């Protein structure tokens, strides 16, 4: 069994695509129109383009429990997911220069250093560096 696609709930797919590609550095993999304004829209790591895809899922727009769940996580400051990076401090500084907002700056916690950012699409995202 392998991980092929994971979903991140987003409030606006176009805004999410812009943020995940132009700020975080992912690459668009798949963009297939579905019903209404929804798309099967995935991005992948630039370094691992045949690796797992992230589905930018418009679930909160079509399924009220998803919207409530996403908002509750965000309001509590809980990250929806995490991405590993080689150097949290460098990524933090790069993203700050691009206008990304952080709720937690790079912080050592045991065997990791982490930071938490706002993806502008309803989620807190945790960046983790293994120490």
TrEMBL record:
<feature type="domain" description="VOC">
    <location>
        <begin position="2"/>
        <end position="130"/>
    </location>
</feature>
<dbReference type="InterPro" id="IPR029068">
    <property type="entry name" value="Glyas_Bleomycin-R_OHBP_Dase"/>
</dbReference>
<protein>
    <submittedName>
        <fullName>Catechol 2,3-dioxygenase</fullName>
    </submittedName>
</protein>
<dbReference type="Pfam" id="PF00903">
    <property type="entry name" value="Glyoxalase"/>
</dbReference>
<keyword id="KW-0223">Dioxygenase</keyword>
<dbReference type="GO" id="GO:0051213">
    <property type="term" value="F:dioxygenase activity"/>
</dbReference>
<keyword id="KW-0560">Oxidoreductase</keyword>
<dbReference type="InterPro" id="IPR037523">
    <property type="entry name" value="VOC_core"/>
</dbReference>
<dbReference type="InterPro" id="IPR004360">
    <property type="entry name" value="Glyas_Fos-R_dOase_dom"/>
</dbReference>
């Amino acid at each position: 069994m392998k991980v092929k696609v994971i979903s991140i709930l987003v409030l606006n797919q176009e805004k999410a695509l812009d943020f995940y590609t132009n700020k975080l550095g992912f690459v668009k993999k798949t963009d297939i129109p579905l019903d209404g304004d929804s798309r099967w829209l995935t991005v992948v790591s630039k370094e691992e383009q045949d690796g797992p895809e992230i589905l930018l899922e418009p679930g909160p727009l079509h399924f009220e429990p998803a919207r409530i769940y996403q908002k509750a996580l965000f309001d509590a400051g809980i990250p929806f997911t995490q991405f590993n990076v080689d150097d949290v401090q460098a990524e933090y500084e790069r993203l700050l220069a691009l206008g990304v907002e952080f709720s937690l700056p790079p912080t050592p916690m045991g065997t990791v250093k982490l930071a938490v950012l706002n993806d502008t699409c309803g989620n807190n995202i945790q960046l983790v560096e293994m120490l």
